[in-house]
Write a structure and sequence with these properties.
The complex is a heterodimer. Chain A is of the alpha/beta class. Chain A has 21 helices and 14 strands. In chain A, α13 crosses α21. The longest helix of chain A is centred in the N-terminal third of the chain and has 18 residues. In chain B, 74% of the residues lie in helices and 1% in strands. Classes of the chains: A alpha/beta, B mainly alpha.
Chain lengths: 457, 310
């Protein structure tokens, strides 16, 4: 099954990544190592004795076997506390040698504090430029120096209850008109068009401005705004937020505005699986657990690219996101060993594909995949998604997720203030104006991550 | 040397070892205090001083801090989100000064009237207080779920007035709903405090009041309340301070949402420190809150010195 998690779910589920790493370890056993022959410390947020034992058996030991003399010391930290524990430890001059962050915006804070080592030398040594996706590795560069490696690629998808749509004689929408007519028809029959809710994680509202800006405003406009060429107060961004607000007020997302604010993520998934809702806009991380929500109903599911919401937007467009990054601590005793461990986890296509097939919800390597790269045991819907993402981004059909390409303060602004548009406290125009002001401050402070241009992947 | 002088000298000789003994006892007492003092310096005084320092800096929570003087405090005074969160803390405080105290008093009074099953009810009411807040929160999130909770269950038996009500998703209901969950967990503790205080009130006072023709209500006003006043004031003080410092239930259930409708200073501070990377500003916010808490304690100390039995 497919493996990917969001930055948002990083703390809660990042431990599963370590489980995935465990499998990779077993796959990589016997490889030649490049460790420096010392101790490498790695903090995992893996939960539960079973997964932790599995990790120890399948990643720790095989890595050490492949890198003679390198002692990989793994410590399991509580997932919810992981980022804060890492932050506190680093501030106190401690912390692991291999550091996982919840995404580039977080990584940049650590880089600004001189806590991450430069990785260019290791990139040359392990040929990461050749192995990893160019745009993905570019995201780890700050001022032309490489500091972090993407660990979990993500995108936004349209999931749907296939059985339900087939019963209604419907197909997933391919345009705004199709989407709106479907939503009206479904709502008229008492079915929520889109399962949605941010009750247990209000910050997850950022998924929606992300989707509406990419599929209404378009990646070119976003690129221009993110590079400071046009303001976020431009009507093309305001209209996208108005459209999102309009859909929420109609009850298309979650059933009603108040339910959108109230529904927890599990309730959202249950609604989709039970057929109370027809579709769900969520990140690719949901592929890891979607099966479980369809067991009770026996319905089938599938995914489709999110449709364009305005003319001129590509029909198949994937927002790019990074759920986490890994870096080497500047204070690492054995930086060579830490870099070897990163290479071991990330950089081999065949092994990564096997790992991604075997371990749900752990990993999505930043590697150029095609569908044939994945083993037959992998769910074909997942393999199709991974290949489609790789191929579309290869053609330059990619967009930008808020949690990856916006600086953290602008991202938090989006999370907090977009809620106020839905409650009517502010207008979409005021929201976009405020974002523009916050983004201008972030640009001035130099906290905007590297923005890759559409068509350059 | 006359007799009196001899006596004084003998007394002085007797006193000398007593004084030494007293000093030794004091020294021993202080030695026993040393571990606690060291721990307090390490875990309270040290971080407090560090917080004061960081509140005067522009600090992301990692890396070097840049001294900015009182800028964070100036920003705080002009921060609408902070004052809105503070207002929510005030609402929360009002709720906690009324609902659980009334329920606690009433419950304690009723429990004091029964002998059988009193311990059973004590335990039942107290259990939510000792259950982890995350468990209580999850329980009530499910009960108050707009589509799967009590509202839809009642609707299915013909009582539809709560059907579809999103208690935690409504800007109007979110704050009182979260407060309700916290009150549910808290009031049993208040009840036990009051019950213990009630049991210490001299029963002869009630008999005397009855002989003077006082009814139940007059007994409550003139005997019970004065008798439990120290406990009452303690509960009031505890409620105010807890309300100002509230974090867990809001964070677990709504994270301050929707659209900041249930944001309190505690959750706003968390966001500043760990999401916006404004740890210096968050430290200033925390000190602002501590200042208000300290002010309230000082008021109680002042009242005590003025002769109030608090």
């Amino acid at each position: 099954m497919y493996t990917e998690i969001s930055r948002r779910q990083f703390l809660a589920r990042g431990g599963k990544a370590a489980l995935g790493a465990g499998l990779a370890g077993s796959l990589l056993a016997g490889c030649g190592g490049g460790g420096g022959g010392g101790q490498v410390t790695y903090w995992s947020n893996l939960e539960g004795s079973g997964p932790q034992d599995y990790f120890n058996k399948n990643i720790e030991k095989p890595f050490e076997k492949a890198n003679k003399g390198t002692d990989l010391k793994v410590t399991f930290q509580p997932p919810e506390e992981m980022d804060r524990i890492v932050r506190t430890a680093l501030q106190g001059g401690e912390g692991p040698d291999v550091i996982m962050t919840p995404g580039p915006a977080y990584a940049q804070e650590y880089i600004d504090a001189n806590l991450f080592a430069e990785l260019d030398e290791y990139s040359d040594q392990y040929k990461w430029d050749d192995k990893l996706l160019g745009w993905a590795i570019d995201l780890g560069r700050y001022e032309d120096k490489l500091y972090s490696i993407p660990y979990q690629l993500q995108t936004m998808l349209l999931y749907y209850n296939k059985t339900l749509l087939e019963d209604k004689g419907m197909q997933p929408p391919k345009s705004r008109d199709e989407l709106e007519s479907m939503a009206e028809e479904l709502q008229g029959e008492g079915i929520t068009p889109f399962a949605a809710g941010i009750g247990d994680d209000p910050a997850a509202i950022e998924w929606f401005p992300t989707v509406f800006w990419n599929h209404y405003s378009g990646p070119d406009a976003l690129y221009q705004a993110l590079t400071g060429e046009i303001p976020f107060s431009d009507p093309v961004f305001v209209e996208a937020i108005e459209l999102f607000n309009n859909y929420v007020q109609k009850g298309w997302f979650g059933g009603s505005r108040e339910q959108f604010f109230s529904n927890g993520i599990d309730a959202v998934h249950v609604d989709l699986g039970d057929g109370n809702a027809a579709m769900n806009v969520e990140g690719s991380w949901f592929l890891a657990e979607i099966d479980g929500f369809f067991k009770d109903s026996g319905d089938d599911w599938d995914w489709a690219p999110l449709p364009p919401l305005r003319r001129g937007i590509p029909a198949e467009l994937y927002e790019l996101g990074l759920g986490s990054t890994i870096s080497v601590n500047t204070r690492a005793q054995d930086a060579d060993g830490a870099a070897a461990f990163i290479d071991y986890l990330n950089a081999n296509k065949k092994r990564a594909a096997q790992w991604m097939a075997a371990v749900p919800s752990a990993f999505n390597a930043p590697l150029p995949f095609s569908e044939s790269d994945f083993p037959a045991s992998m769910d074909q819907r997942v393999a199709r998604q991974l290949a489609a993402l790789s191929e579309a981004t290869g053609k330059g059909n990619f967009g930008y997720t808020a949690w990856t390409f916006w600086p953290s303060k602008s991202d938090v602004y989006i999370q907090d203030e977009s809620q106020k548009v839905l409650t009517g406290d502010i207008t979409a125009a005021e929201f976009c104006q405020g974002l523009d002001e916050q983004f201008a401050k972030d640009r001035k402070e130099g906290t905007v991550p590297k923005i890759i241009e559409p068509g350059t992947a | 040397m006359d007799v009196d002088q001899t006596t004084v000298a003998q007394e002085a000789v007797k006193q000398a070892p007593r004084g030494g003994l007293r000093r030794r006892r004091r020294l021993t007492a202080w030695l026993f205090m040393v571990p606690l003092l060291v721990i307090n310096v390490l875990v309270i005084l040290g971080p407090s001083v560090a917080t004061i320092y960081y509140s005067l800096t522009d600090w992301a929570g990692i890396g070097p801090a840049e001294f900015v003087g009182l800028q964070n405090y100036r920003d705080l005074l002009a921060d609408g989100d902070f004052w809105m969160a503070m207002w929510h803390n005030v609402i929360w405080t009002v709720l906690f000064l009324t609902v659980p105290i009334f329920m606690g008093l009433l419950g304690a009074f009723l429990l004091s009237q029964i002998k059988r099953f009193q311990m059973f009810f004590r335990i039942v009411y107290f259990v939510p207080y000792i259950v982890a807040s995350v468990v209580n929160a999850a329980l009530w999130q499910n009960i108050l779920d707009p589509t799967r909770g009590i509202g839809s269950a009642l609707a299915s038996i013909g009582i539809p007035f709560l059907d579809g009500v999103a208690f935690f998703g409504s800007e109007r209901l979110a704050l009182p709903s979260v407060a309700f969950v916290n009150i549910w967990a808290w009031w049993g503790f208040v009840l036990l405090l009051f019950l213990t205080a009630l049991q210490s009130v001299d029963h002869e006072l009630y008999e005397a009041a009855r002989m003077d023709g006082a009814g139940r209500w007059q007994q409550f006003l003139n005997v019970t309340l004065p008798g439990i006043r120290p406990t009452f004031v303690f509960v009031v003080l505890l409620s105010i301070i807890n309300s100002l410092l509230v974090f867990d239930y809001v964070y677990i259930i709504t994270r301050g949402g929707p659209a900041g409708a249930s944001e309190v200073v505690g959750t706003l501070m968390w966001k500043e420190a760990f999401e916006r990377f404004e740890a210096g500003y968050a430290a200033a916010m925390g000190l602002g809150l501590s200042f208000v808490s300290g002010l309230i304690v000082l008021i109680f100390v002042f009242l005590r010195r003025r002769g109030w039995e608090v």
